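tokens incoming
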């Protein structure tokens, strides 16, 4: 599929169909592609905690607000994204290289996560990125170490109904050429 088509196909889905072709192997392929993203000094600090068992999916959904509980009915996987702190954007002696500190870890994870979402879309797998979640409750359920900062939870599955493309800014609204 051409990149433009994949970009058009990727939409935040909030109504998933029961059942999906999604497999552990497919998710591993999305992550393998995401690993091609650039990262600060190639530190590759992004991490993925992939929840596929129905019992564990139910536990993680308990860490959402009512809106996201509703959005994630029938999802086939919940991918908790995280990054190892104090490496990306940091010197070897542990001091931040500049004012953004762990902001660079978030930046790197975002770059990786974008590829992950696009590879999923290419494979016909729909997604929803969720930032509204109780990170510490998820940490406790999955035993995610304190060295990792928890970012989003990405729901994966196949859509029950299509979503409209929300309006976007125009290029001239966000760019300044020098
Ligand atoms: C960091 C981040 C956090 C988000 N959190 C939520 C969320 O908690 N719940 C939700 O339904 N959508 C969430 N979204 C999805 C956005 O609302 C969505 O990407 C945006 O409206 C644009 O729609 P599109 O993805 O279909 O292009 C989030 C997206 C991002 C990138």
């Amino acid at each position: 599929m051409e990149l433009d088509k994949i970009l058009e196909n990727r939409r935040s889905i909030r109504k998933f169909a029961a059942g999906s072709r999604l497999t552990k192997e497919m998710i591993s392929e999305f992550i393998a592609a995401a690993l091609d993203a650039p990262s600060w000094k190639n530190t590759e600090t992004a991490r993925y905690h992939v929840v596929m068992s129905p019992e564990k999916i139910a536990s993680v959904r308990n860490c959402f607000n009512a809106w996201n509980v509703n959005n994630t009915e029938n999802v086939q996987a919940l991918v908790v994204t995280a990054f190892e702190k104090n490496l990306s954007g940091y010197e070897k002696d542990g001091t931040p290289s500049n004012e953004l500190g762990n902001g660079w870890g978030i930046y790197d994870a975002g770059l990786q996560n974008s590829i992950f979402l696009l590879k999923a879309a290419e494979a016909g797998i729909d997604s929803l990125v969720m930032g509204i979640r109780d990170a510490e409750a998820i940490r406790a359920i999955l035993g995610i170490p304190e060295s990792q900062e928890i970012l989003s939870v990405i729901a994966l599955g196949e859509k029950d109904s299509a979503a409209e493309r929300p309006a976007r800014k125009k290029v001239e609204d966000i760019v300044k050429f020098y």
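note: The pocket of flavin mononucleotide is lined by residues 11-12, 14, 68, 71, 128-132, 152, 163, 166 (CB under 6 Å).
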